[in-house]
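call fold(seq) -> tokens
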Amino acid sequence: MSDSSPARPAAPVLDVWCELQCPDCRHALDDLRALRARYGDRLELRLRHFPLEKHKHSFAAAQAAEEALEQGRGWPYVEAVLGRVEELDRRGEAFLVETARELGLDAEEFDTALIDGRHILIVDADQAEGKAIGVTGTPTYVIGGERLDGGKSQEGLRERVEEIADRLLAEREG
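ret:
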């Protein structure tokens, strides 16, 4: 049986270029929660990795976030790690594995993933794409082809994301 109704366009995408050892990204969590609450599944929120060299555990944290995503708890894991940035600074990979355990994830699999590097290509690809589109710091948002840099100031960013999302949703529904 064929469906002749017009296909509904995909939800608009908000790419969030983030680094899990970044205090600015931790401060952006409230905005991300508000956006998820306002739009639900009408806006696809995608974590994109942009580990910064100045944070020595950021690359491992990005890989761990990918493992959490694979185990079905990506955003809760990201929020848990960002909520305790200072602890990640002090404890590194042990903290990443412990956080997985606290969330009921398979901590042994996290440990193995960090050793075998199964998620390195995803993190590398995100970082390369970020550099290619001009991401220089975190958090940076990309929605509707517009890049919004929150690395220097996050003031007004959520409102700007909402304006763009509302426009994109109106175009999608209208």
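Residues 13-164 form a domain with the Glutaredoxin fold (CATH 3.40.30.10).
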